[in-house]
Amino acid sequence: VDGCIHRAAGPLLTDECRTLQNCETGKAKITGGYRLPAKYVIHTVGPIAHGEPSASQAAELRSCYLSSLDLLLEHRLRSAVKTCRGGGSDNRGTGVWVPPHPHPRAEQVPAQVDRLIICVFLEKDESIYMQRLPHYFPVGTYPRGTW
């Protein structure tokens, strides 16, 4: 996914990313969107788990989502597209982190964000998001492959 985003955005995104230095696992940074149909890109580095993630890897994944959410709110973005981080055996895996009940920071999102699009690659990840997101947002159905 990262390579596709960089190719579509063009070389200026790569140039800006170089100025950011490193992004620690679980943290997020924001750049311009350049040639993308988005003003900004929120970058995050997820944990690499081989098999079932450890407790620290699950915490890093949670931090990826919360750090991204912080930037979304801080920059007052009205819409966002979020790619699922990898894949996983359940919502603790390296792909999906949506808590079963609203997180205090996430409760601010419906009032400030008009549209949140989640891009998933596996049906099991889609199922988790569809079960959990109604706790946070009204869930709409969009045809697959539209964008």
TrEMBL record:
One of its GO terms (biological process) is purine nucleoside metabolic process. GO terms for molecular function: ADP-ribosylglutamate hydrolase activity. GO terms for cellular component: nucleoplasm. Pfam families: Macro. Residues 1-137 form the Macro domain. PANTHER family: ADP-RIBOSE GLYCOHYDROLASE MACROD1, GANGLIOSIDE INDUCED DIFFERENTIATION ASSOCIATED PROTEIN 2-RELATED. This is MACD1 deacetylase. It comes from Crocuta crocuta.
